[in-house]
Amino acid sequence: MKIKSFFGIFLLFTILSCTGHQTDKAGINDPSLARIIVKNELVVGVDPSIPPLSFYSSTGAIAGYESDVAQVIADKLGVKLRLVPITSIADRILELENRGIDYIASGFINNETNAERFLLSTPYLRDSLVVVVLQSMDGTTTFNQFSDLRNKRIGIPSDQDMFEVVMKSPLYINNGRRPYRYSRQENMLLALDYDQLDAVVMNLLTYYSKITIEKKPYKVIEDPLNITSYSYAFRKEDGELAKTINAFLTDMARDGTLRAISTKWFGADVSMVGKY
Predict the structure, then answer these.
(1) On the CB side of 182, how many CA atoms lie within 13 Å of its CA?
(2) How sure is the predictor about 18, in pLDDT bands with cuts at 50, 70 and 90?
(3) Which InterPro entries match (predicted)?
(4) Residue 20: its H or E element
């Protein structure tokens, strides 16, 4: 145990020096990074229902963009990675506050409300909600604008924040028919594929993945319903951990790691670290 603790402390000082950290009074009183090094495990809360950010692979393991980025971070820390699947954002927040996880990933929105409650990382992805329809082989679509979807069948994921955005948008206000809510996004997209829905609301990042990697015949109509950016959420007192991971993200942007992971899962480089 003493040997393990010694090497943990040695690794901690190595990480701090490599990321340019200064050992100050705040750092001494903040054990968030040291705690992970000593226990030899980074625990990340992810939502496994939003591919390609995070999802269950055919082997039953959690895969996706978040998994790959978290693995690189864990490797840089020299610790093991454990992904905790938690679909509900409320449950992920509860796990963070109860110290069941070290930070929240998988599409945690960077906004003023969340910034007041949590310590947010550098925004690493930009996303938006878009309305998607099927297009024919010649590239034409039956629906080209929101007004074409009046009284039509529209599907949306069951996420409450997404539902509220849709209900306040021109898509719903001008529609006159309540959207169908799906607990699993893949089931919603299957319904679109088989003409059981006329349109769906989905994240632009997922859309990129579907059209570039899976070659789905989808098309976005009109402007996005909203525009957001994603950050990792930490406990307010875990500043050392947040600073270290921010430094890692910057390094990963510089050496092309984020670009490679983004292209793998979205078909394009949509990462935003160091770009804005």
Answers:
(1) 21
(2) low
(3) Solute-binding_3/MltF_N (IPR001638)
(4) none
Tokens of 171: 């898509």
Alpha carbon distance 136, 255 (integer Å): 40
C-alpha 274/C-alpha 64 separation (Å) is 22
Q: What digits encode the pLDDT tens for the residues 84-141?
A: 999 888 899 999 999 999 999 988 999 999 999 999 999 999 999 999 999 998 888 9
What burial letters (b/e) apply to 186-203, b meaning 16+ CB within 10 Å?
Answer: eebbebbeeeebbbbbbb
- Can you tell me whether residue 31 is helix, strand or coil? coil
Contact between 83 and 204 (Cβ < 8 Å): no
Average pLDDT over every residue of 240-252 = 97
Domains of the chain (ranges plus CATH)?
2-124+231-266 (3.40.190.10), 127-228 (3.40.190.10)
Q: Would you state the structure tokens that stand for residue 141, as one six-digit string?
A: 């679509």
What the block records as the tokens of 225 is: 């319903």
33 contacts 55 by C-beta, under 8 angstroms:
no
